Predict the 3D structure of the following.
Amino acid sequence: MRSSIPPKSFGVGAGVSMSADRGAVIGVVGASARAASFTLLRAGNQVVAADLYADADLARVCRVSRVTPYPEGLIAWLEQTACRRWLYTGALENYPQLVDRLARIRPLIGAQGKGLVRVRDPLLLQEVLNRSGFHFPTTRDARQAHSGTERWLGKSYHGSSGSEVGHTAGKRYVQRYVEGTPLSAVFYGQKLCGVTRQLVGEAWTGAARYQYCGSIGPWPLRSGSQETLRRLGALLCQEFGLVGWYGVDLIAAGERLWTIEVNPRYTAAVEIVERAAQDRSACFGKAILFCKQPITVSAQLSAGLLGQCGEISWPRLADIPPARTQLRTGQPILTAFAVAPNPDAVEIELRQRVAELERGFEAVRATARVER
């Protein structure tokens, strides 16, 4: 199905919709394909998608499949799907061999396996960035001794969106904790497209302590910091062969910008940067609502949420679970969006919207308990 949204002139979307691809069918795969699919649709492409959810709002604007087993089932899906090119979202960067295998089936927009292996190696990334004068927190193999007087975060090589961040026990590597404001820089190739503040571990969303749960942007930076990020983008492309969309997780601490990790693919912050570039008169945000208690999504609930979505040019809600979805505690339910004059006002509106949604879900649970 084609989107009715007219193409918009914006660097992020236009980067994929080059003249040869305008109107072409692009495949999108990953844990969640909705955000990237919406960006491509807004840029004038057609989309076919495969992910873990097959969200109801995505299904009404393009063909989307819920793939099992995941991610291995993506091979058969791409072999059977006609598309000019394809791209991946999180967390397929953790499966470089699978990415290369898929790239042999259809041309890939994005970094291939060799680049993924290198840029997702935190010890190599530390070496490259330190050598070039960038700030990167001390990072070590978890088997190495680390000071008991400093705070360290344990991480996994296969995590995404903060899902594997926490205590050092049982983790593959450790990174010194840096206190500050979590940010995300969005790049397309060497081009810095924008910066957002990351919402991380916000209790009002139901997220785990270090879990990504939203973005607010544009986020202001000093001119010196902007130049630092432009140099960083050039270095990452040169050293690791990054192409297309990618994001860099940062911590702003005083005058310093600390690079935490690189996400070498379309990131959740892209659609906020995209919207901010189209309308410079306001700030924009999104918050992911996580399930605080188990809930089964009825056809009525799914349809009701779908009716609140609005247009994909700027949705009010997105990532709507289909009917009969059974959500466990800790799983994402949906994404809420907000617009306001400044970042603080955006966060207030997001908090209010999430609280309103929570009240609605609690009413659904209460009704289900009575019916039982």
